[in-house]
Amino acid sequence: MKKMKYVIGVDLGTSGTKTVLFDEKGNIIADSYAEYPLYRPKNGWAEQDPCDWWKAAVKTIRAVIKESGVNSEDICSLGISGQMHGLVMLDRENRVLRNSIIWCDQRTQEECADIEKAVGKNRLIEITANPALTGFTASKILWVRKHEPDIYKKCAHILLPKDYVRLKLTGVYATDVSDASGMQLLDIAKRKWSNEVLLKLSIDKTLLADVFESQEITGYVSKEAASVTGLSEKTAVVAGAGDNAAAAVGTGTVCDGDAFTTIGTSGVVYIHTDKMKLDKKGRVHTFCCAVPDKWHVMGVTQAAGLSLKWFKDEFCSDLEKNAREENKNVYAFLDEKAELSGVGANRLIYLPYLMGERTPHLDPDARGVFFGLNTVHNRYDMVRAVMEGVGFSLLDCLSVFDEMGIKPNKMLACGGGGTSRLWRQILSDMFKTEISASKSKEAPALGAAILAMVGAKLYPSVEKACECIIGTGETAVPYKENSLKYERLYRIYKKLYISLKDDFKELS
Fold first, then answer.
1. pTM greater than the 0.85 cutoff
2. Which residues lie closer than 8 Å to 422 by C-beta, 6 or more apart?
3. pLDDT tens digit sequence for 452-465
4. Active site amino acids
5. Are 101 and 259 in contact (CB under 8 A)?
6. Cα gap 83→2, rounded to integer Å
7. Where are the alpha helices (DSSP H) in 406-479?
8. If DSSP codes are grouped into helix, strand and coil, which group holds residue 162?
9. pLDDT digits (tens, 9 = 90+) for 105-161
10. Which of 61, 198, 428, 489 is the most exposed place for a label (fewest CB within 10 A)?
11. Alpha-carbon distance 419 to 125, whole Å?
């Protein structure tokens, strides 16, 4: 009888690290979670200590091995999914030189202008498939060079968050194509560092890690790492993927036209494509994905689930008690009440721009709006309007894809909002397509684990592994009558931003 093999998926997030031990069929055997702090030394800044990521990885890996009782010799491989764009700077002895400037930090507007001036705005998009953005890593490197030259002089290695954990596990400096795509230093079409961009930005290529495809083995657990984690030195560590690319694998979004929508704190519409396509206006991101020689296009709305959480916390805090009395989650309680409001929320429209907006406006000055309020409206109409406003914002992303000639052939919903039956129905009606719930609640960790399985030769390809492992849940089917109503409301929604754009800027 064949002995069962096991793999580990590590999901290095912003709030904490989730580590999951899977068997080779994708079943969860054990999981563990560890939080760590986020530092905000100034308004708009966001930093974390890379040592906290390593401590969390050690703690959670040890926990899943202990809880499961699995022999570490039977854990054949490990994959890591990570928050993207964070800047980790190390000296020659691999000591951390400063806290990591992470993805949501906004200090680098001047450096973004410097990048576009040095490379050329259009040329930058041609090579990196994206305009210069404050969230990306390249502008963070330039910021440190300009403002902390002594630290920059000591820098011998530049890594991304998950790749620092890999270094601690294996002693290898490596990254994967999907995560490297978010540094704005990669030639997205060629899937390797861009000599042209590096030269124009005066960044030494030797500072950067070697680039691998996501399922490739980058190294093995070192003796030192084995002693602190409980892993075997025989355990392979694959390249892994950025968080959304890993989630795509964990939801089976790995073939041309496959798509998913995530409603977490932010919102994402992600479509897998066999051919690299880019938006010359830079409204959406094109990145290498975790499937070899394939890409994905991704649109982002800044305040998706955040909009609903904000409204719940500020205007519905008393309903927590009501929900408990009915033995319900407060969001499920709000779903039921919002459903009674009906399509269009009694002619109330919400613009979900609490944190500015990325796709398609790239406007940090945009702000949230309720439009159409009158005395007939109650807070449940407003909840419904929030859910629909987020849907319209995600439809904006899909509209850009349509302009690019990219259409989804199937759509999954994941993230916290994806568990809402009402929200899935709203998206289905707006997108005019069937939307299925993702069965896995641990998509990034599962995606990292599947990549580890392929690296360990448990499956011949990422696509085949997903075919064998991934399942879907309940499916929402679009209603034509609802779709027609949303078409009319969407026309108004789109005009509102145009009308308010200058006012947003003046207000800021």
1. yes
2. 335, 338, 339, 387
3. 999 999 999 999 99
4. 243
5. no
6. 36
7. 421-431, 443-455, 462-469
8. helix
9. 889 999 999 999 999 999 999 999 999 998 899 999 999 999 999 999 999 999 999
10. 198
11. 35
